[in-house]
Design goal:
Number of strands: 3
Number of domains: 1
Radius of gyration: 24 Å
Strand content: 25-35%
Largest sheet: 3 strands, antiparallel
Distance between the termini: 88 Å
Order of helices and strands: HHEEE
Helix content: 40-55%
Strand order of the largest sheet: 1-2-3
C-alpha cells in the first residue's frame, strides 16, 4: 500500500493547464476590453452628434465622427460612416472592423453602430 507522501505532487499537470487557461483568458481580456471601451465611446459620441444634428450639417456630423474615431485610434474611414436625414430623423451609421493581434492568431471584431434619433427644432 502506498503512503500519502508518494501521492503529493502527482497532479501538477492539472495546475499547469489551469495556469495556461488563465493566461490565455487574461491576455484576451487585456487586448479586447480596451477596444470595446473605445467602440462604446465612439457610439456615445455618435448619440451626442445625433442630438445636436439640428444645428449642424450632415457633412459636419460625419467629419466630427471621423475625427473622434481617429482620436480614439479606431480604423474608421470616410466610407465607413454615413449620415442621413429622413423626415425629421437623423440616422448615423458606422460599420468597420478592428483586427486584434494575438500570437499566431488575428481576431477581427466587427462593429456596426446605428444611431437613429428624431431631430427637434430648437
Amino acid at each position: 500500500m502506498r503512503s500519502l507522501q508518494t501521492r503529493f505532487g502527482q497532479g501538477k499537470i492539472g495546475c499547469v493547464i489551469w495556469v495556461l487557461v488563465l493566461a490565455v483568458f487574461f491576455t484576451a481580456c487585456w487586448k479586447i476590453i480596451p477596444v470595446k471601451i473605445k467602440t462604446a465611446e465612439l457610439y456615445d459620441f455618435m448619440e451626442e452628434q445625433a442630438q445636436r444634428a439640428t444645428r449642424t450639417s450632415s457633412e459636419s456630423v460625419k467629419k466630427n465622427v471621423l475625427a473622434r474615431a481617429k482620436d480614439l485610434g479606431l480604423p474608421v474611414g470616410p466610407k465607413d460612416v454615413t449620415v442621413q436625414r429622413r423626415g425629421g430623423r437623423v440616422v448615423i451609421t458606422a460599420r468597420y472592423s478592428i483586427p486584434v493581434e494575438f500570437p499566431g492568431y488575428t481576431y477581427v471584431i466587427e462593429v456596426d453602430h446605428v444611431v437613429d434619433r428624431p431631430v427637434f427644432a430648437v
